[in-house]
Amino acid sequence: xxxxxxxxxxxxxxxxxxxxxxxxxxxxxxxxxxxxxxxxxxxxxxxxxxxxxxxxxxxxxxxxxxxxxxxxxxxxxxxxxxxxxxxxxxxxxxxxxxxxxxxxxxxxxxxxxxxxxxxxxxxxxxxxxxxxxxxxxxxxxxxxxxxxxxxxxxxxxxxxxxxxxxxxxxxxxxxxxxxxxxxxxxxxxxxxxxxxxxxxxxxxxxxxxxxxxxxxxxxxxxxxxxxxxxxxxxxxxxxxxxxxxxxxxxxxxxxxxxxxxxxxx
Length: 265
Known about the structure:
- The chain has helices at residues 2-8, 14-41, 59-83, 87-101, 110-132, 138-206, 210-219, 223-229, 249-264.
- The chain is an all-alpha fold.
- It folds into two domains: 2-166, no CATH class; 190-264, no CATH class.
- It starts with a helix and ends with a helix.
């Protein structure tokens, strides 16, 4: 099973999953085409009931269904049965790859694998009873019945597993997002509380070189931060060597805050 897991893992991406589900739906549509053509030619109002559509049946009920089809209906069912040999493999991949894409282990392949095997057994058994009709083989008919029942159980189980995996994965991502948001809010609150003190400390360092101050203003210009810091009303020593003020209050606040961001990042 682990070898199969390593073989399938490279295929577990969104494009392959969408392609496989599309092919599975297309194959299911093709399955009903011969039966629809028979329904039209026979003047029936509804599709005939075939073994694949019966959840559980006895051998007598199975052969009664084949008898009601008539010769043309059984021929149409044979054609549909041929196309049904493709669907198990497509659905096996369609049910397995989503779990692998979410990082699940090889055990998540087991349920789709059991589905695929039981579906193939059902198809082979149905093909056999169709070929020997009107002769009967009750054992093979019941094999088709029980295989179909197992198929339905495990395909539903696989779909539920996929839904749970996707749901739990989304829940985990949402939890991480909320934690990240809470952490970000706490950091922002902390920065807002201590920003004046931090700015005043760094201003003493930056005041040593007004040319570097101008450089940071030009390089890290950000109007949003400028608007946010306009409310800080911090008092800075912005007098240059010639005694003239070269940087106004809001611009200096912008500079210091951007310098903090640069250090943090």
